[in-house]
Amino acid sequence: MVLEGHKSLSMQDHFVEVPTATGRMETFVTHPQQDGPFPPVILYMDIWGVREELYDLARRVGTVGYYVMVPDFYYRQGRIRTDFRDSHGKAISLDRLDKEAQQRALAPQKKLSDAMVMEDTGAILNFLSQDKNADARSVGAIGYCMGGRHALQAAARYPERFKASASLHGTSLISERSDSPHLSVIKLQGEVYCGFAEYDAYAPLSMVDELARLMKQSSVRYRYEIHRNARHGYALPDRDIHEKYAAERDWELIFAMLHRQIPPYAAVAAH
User: Fold this and answer.
1) Are strands 23-32 and 11-20 parallel, antiparallel or unpaired?
2) Which of 43, 78, 146, 164 could form a disulfide with 261 if both were Cys (CB 3.0 to 4.6 A apart)?
3) Is residue 104 within 8 Å of residue 82, measured between CB atoms?
4) How many other β-carbons are positioned within 10 Å of the β-carbon of residue 4?
5) What is the domain count for the chain?
6) Other CB atoms within 10 A of residue 106 CB
């Protein structure tokens, strides 16, 4: 179900409702107006939830020939919108907020299980198979923070569909949880890229090394970068600790991966 939409000179943006087992999930969609159908890319949100910042990131991917979705995985809780800004208009990182604000920011995430996100991912894949603008045979994923974990989990849960997945400052990629991404790396197909910050309590360098070792068990093509002097959240352009050099390096590698694994129709036709 299309909720609303508008056309720019080159892109078509609109919101849809994706039917799920527990309701209807509002999802932002963007893709070019011509030369479709387009390979889909699902953008997995961080703890802050959906917002214009993520929609702009989706548009950046969409402009090169992709059908990009930003699902609101908090939909079971209503319309969650969390935003804390400093005097310069930048989004304040979690560790720079006071305790009360931190609890407010974390509350929605605590009610969202990874199992819920995987269930919703299945619903998204079903939705994509019915959209004439999407060529849903092979899918990409890009995730930030907790979304970086979800991107890897989705790639392992639906390996026949996800062929190009990126995790940017992903959290808890190795943990004691039964659904920890590292336990399923053997299932991965296609290609995976991870961008890490040098300073990140949620992804210490020892974990980065261990994940690289575990990835060798899989046939997946794996690459990662550790961005010097960067901190958790570096890849998000509106954040107070954004590191442009690191984010642009991520984009260089992500776009190359997408082009290799799920090239846009126009790019295939050109060859």
Assistant:
1) antiparallel
2) 164
3) yes
4) 8
5) 1
6) 13
Query: For residues 134 and 235, what is the distance between their CA atoms, to the nearest angstrom?
Result: 27
The residue segments making up the domain with residue 255 are: 2-270
Q: Give the whole-angstrom CA distance, residue 244 versus residue 234.
A: 8
DSSP 214-251: HHTTSSSEEEEEEEEEEETTTT-TTBTT--HHHHHHHH
Query: Going edge to edge, which strands form the sheet with 2-7?
Result: 2-7, 11-20, 23-32, 67-71, 40-44, 139-144, 162-168, 191-199, 221-231
Q: Residue 20 carries which DSSP code?
A: E
Instruction: State the pairing for strand pair 139-144/191-199.
Output: unpaired
Six token digits for residue 94: 């979690």
pTM of the full predicted structure?
Answer: 0.93
3-state DSSP call for residue 39? coil
Q: How many helices (H) and strands (E) does the chain have?
A: 7, 9
Q: Are 17 and 131 in contact (CB under 8 A)?
A: no
In this structure, the strands spanning 40-44 and 67-71 are parallel
In three state form, how does the secondary structure of 59-90 look? HHHHCCCCEEEEECCCHHHCCCCCCCECCCCC
Residue 221 maps to which CATH number?
A: 3.40.50.1820
What tokens does 211 get? 């994940």
Give the number of other Cβ atoms within 10 Å of residue 102's Cβ.
14
pLDDT in tens, 205-249: 999 999 999 999 999 999 999 999 999 999 999 999 999 999 999
**Could you report the per-residue pLDDT of 57-88, keeping only the tens digit for each?**
999 999 999 999 999 999 999 998 888 998 89
